[in-house]
Amino acid sequence: DVKVTQSSRYLVKRTGEKVFLECVQDMDHENMFWYRQDPGLGLRLIYFSYDVKMKEKGDIPEGYSVSREKKERFSLILESASTNQTSMYLCASSLRAQGAFRGYTFGSGTRLTVV
Amino acid sequence: AQSVSQHNHHVILSEAASLELGCNYSYGGTVNLFWYVQYPGQHLQLLLKYFSGDPLVKGIKGFEAEFIKSKFSFNLRKPSVQWSDTAEYFCASCSGNTGKLIFGQGTTLQVKP
């Protein structure tokens, strides 16, 4: 089975800190995605990547950046964490060819609290 | 812009009751449609998906969904729910070849034993 591993299950950070959320997948998927999940808002796409060193903005990229130096790893960076970035962050991966049709594989999520 | 709307935010049912969760999508072209489920403390899992063909799609755990193109709808159904169906359910769509999934707001289902 494809596994998508997010490095931390829970994180607590202070306002203004630079935060790194790491995601690693082990099945050679080309596509990787970062979502945030908030009650009543569902999942919203922050950034995605179709290939190494490639990134595209999703629907809510403000305050975030990403890095994809290796195919299996996709990092989400909060340049200066703020309390409104307290959320559950989900990473996902998929094959490039009709990726969503074949289905995403999601990680277990990182619950980030910014105090 | 492509969007997905789920009508019910919180549904409470007794065991053995029938379930129908509404989902509407806005994109007018070819879409792929999905229902995902997230059980408490677990990651998102695919329940079922539609891309073409028979508009009635059967998924895992007795769930099914019907694609009605004229209504831009993809409602999820189950004839008889169980306590173990308590979870959050997300409808999602993907258009064209972007590979981007757009999710609805989610519906929390609570099944009382």
CATH class annotation of chain B: Mainly Beta
- Reading the helices and strands of chain A in chain order gives EEEEEEEEEEHEE
- Structural category of chain A is mainly beta
Sketch the topology of chain B as an H/E string, one letter per element: EEEEEEEEEEEE
* Dominant shape of chain A: globular
Please name the CATH topology of chain B. Immunoglobulin-like
* Domains of chain A (count): 1
- Uncertain stretches of chain B: none
Strand content range of chain B:
over 45%
Summed up:
By secondary structure, chain A is mainly beta. Chain A has one helix spanning 99-102, and strands spanning 4-6, 10-13, 19-21, 23-25, 31-38, 42-49, 56-57, 64-70, 73-78, 87-94, 105-106, 110-114. In chain A, β5 (31-38) and β6 form a beta hairpin.
Describe this structure as you would to a colleague.
The complex is a heterodimer of chains A (115) and B (113). Chain A is mostly beta strands and 115 residues long. Chain A has a single domain, classed as Immunoglobulins (Immunoglobulin-like, Sandwich). Chain A is built from one helix and twelve strands. In chain A, the strands form three sheets. In chain A, strands 2, 5, 6, 7, 10, 11 and 12 form a seven-stranded mixed beta sheet that branches. Chain B is mostly beta strands. Chain B has a single domain (4-112), classed as Immunoglobulin-like. Chain B has strands at 4-6, 10-14, 19-21, 23-25, 31-38, 45-50, 56-58, 64-68, 73-78, 87-95, 102-103, 107-112. In chain B, the strands form three sheets. In chain B, strands 2, 5, 6, 10, 11 and 12 form a six-stranded mixed beta sheet that branches. Chain B has a four-stranded antiparallel beta sheet with strand order 3-9-8-7, with no helix packed on it. A two-stranded antiparallel ribbon of chain B has the order 1-4. The interface between A and B is medium-sized, with 26 and 24 residues.
